[in-house]
Amino acid sequence: MTKKQLYILLLATTLSSFLTPFMGSAVNVALPFMAKELSMTALSLSWVATSFILAAAITLVPLGRLADIYGRKKIFLYGAIVFTAASGLCAWSPTQTFLIAVRIIQGIGGAMIFSTGTAMLVSAYPAGDRGKILGINIAAVYIGLTIGPFIGGLLTEHLGWRYIFIFTAILGIIIILSVAAMIKEEWSGTKGEGFDFAGSMLYAIALFAIMYGFSLLPTWRAGLLIGLGVLCLGFFIFQQLKQPSPLLDIRLFLDNKVFAFSNLAALINYCATFAVTFLLSLYLQHIKMLTPSQTGIILVAAPFMQAFFSPLAGRLSDRLEPQIIASIGMALNVIGLIPLIFINNDTSIHYIVFCLILLGLGFALFSSPNVNATMSAVENKFYGIASATLGTMRLTGQMFSMGITMLVFAVILGNHPISQANNPLLLKSIQIIFTLLAVICCGGIFASLARGKVH
Questions:
Q1: pLDDT one-digit tens code per residue, 220-239
Q2: Is 10 among the domain residues?
Q3: What is the per-residue burial (b if ≥16 Cβ within 10 Å, else e) of 307-339?
Q4: Which of 209, 244, 279 lies at the terminal end of a domain, its last residue?
Q5: Distance between CA atoms of 110 and 23, rounded to whole angstroms?
Q6: 0.85 cut: is pTM over it?
Q7: By CB count within 10 A, which of 7, 77, 84, 387 is most buried?
Q8: What is the rounded distance in angstroms from the CA atom of residue 405 to the CA atom of residue 416?
Q9: Using one digit for the tens of pLDDT, what is the confidence trace for 133-170?
Q10: How far, in Å, CA of 251 to CA of 354, rounded?
């Protein structure tokens, strides 16, 4: 590939890495406005947010496998088309049922992008540049996740919630035109191998049951669904070990220590950090009484650090052991989370910003070296599945992070609305959640250290 084509590929994949997390976090801000316009209940409203993550998580690994067989650029391009078309339909949605249905389609399109973007970058760029390039790509993910609420709030406040989807559709069109016009090369590592449909169904049922069950905690139905999911997951692992062309090569986890522990570290990292923006958004708006715009400006502290340091961390991981850099990043996340346990009505904004700066630096030092370690630990033919597995860890971690949050809210706040009168209960819930997240993050340090050496 020419230098120009490499830059176009980097632009397209970085935009796609920004696009899906941005849209997901921006939509969270707009939910009350959607509820009012489409007459939605709390349950149906929660499905607007959850349906996308569930659909993406369930289809990521099967789509990664298809990309390895039929071509990563092809699946990426189809995914961008599906995602963009679904975004346009979301903006037009006349009813809540239509919106939720299209969000499921949008999640599948997002999974096609998630499962191939990183794999294409790793395939196109030389090994010595991977860390730097992945650092830029990872920075886009975190910027999208964190500035989504701020930009989404501005769009919703001044133009309406439908403009969030119009904005994402415009970015989607730029991605489609860039890839279709400029990128002629195709990458695939397992041409001629079969696709495991039975394994895909078992995997989908297992993941849906576990993730949906987790969202229903602490009800008895949650226990049944999680039990069913774990049982199906056991069958899936057994079936995959006997498959000549498995959907997910389980031996990657059993025989490849770096790959296994890098994925575990990613799962723990997202579980420990995803709810931070959500919780601080509630704290700043309901307890500190700031506006959505003021809140967004404060929350930008973390993505600024991520954007600045992610490429540097990626370059460092090309020269030093990713194990060391990523573990330092995870430790910084713990140091950033612990002070948040003690926030109260009188906590200063400077205190919050300082914690966000630590977390932003921790995110940057962990993420790109961790992705670099994961992708460097597998052969070319597994790039698509490795990228998809990392994406699944991200989405599953996000679901668990929000599941922990909702569980604590259910126990402490119950059916009480989030209002001025219930601020003491809200604050108590936030403190408990930050305690749990800090403890989980401590486990991530050990998972990151346990992966061993890459170079």
A1: 888 899 899 999 989 988 88
A2: yes
A3: bebbbbbbbbbbeebbbbbbbbbbbbbbebbbb
A4: 244
A5: 10
A6: no
A7: 387
A8: 15
A9: 877 877 787 778 777 877 888 888 889 889 999 999 99
A10: 42
**Cis preceding linkage at 303, omega within 30:** no
Is 454 within a domain?
Answer: no
Domain boundary among 228, 244, 260: 244
Are residues 221 and 291 both part of a single domain? no
Q: Could you tell me the two tokens for 221?
A: 């139905």
Q: Which domain holds residue 224?
A: 196-244
Claim to verify: residue 358 and residue 392 sit in the same structural domain: yes
Evaluate whether 378 touches 119 at the Cβ level (below 8 Å).
no
Whether residue 158 is contained in a domain is answered as: yes
Tokens 């794999």 sit at which residue?
A: 119
Whether residue 281 is found in the same domain as residue 205: no
Helices 130-158, 96-124: axis angle to 10 degrees equals 160
Task: Say if CB 433 and CB 413 are below 8 A apart.
Answer: no
CB 390 within 8 A of CB 371: yes
- Comparing C-alpha atoms, which of 130, 139, 10, 133 is closest to residue 455? 130
CATH at residue 434: 1.20.1250.20
Helix and strand tally (H, E) in the chain?
17, 0
CB 52 within 8 A of CB 28: no
Provide CB contacts within 8 A for 381, sequence distance 6+: 68, 189, 190
Asked if 276 and 204 sit in the same domain, the reply is no
Residue that the structure tokens 């967004």 belong to: 296
Domain count, the chain: 2
357 lies in the same domain as 417: yes
Domain identity same for 320 and 412 = yes
Query: Distance between terminal CA atoms of the chain?
Result: 26
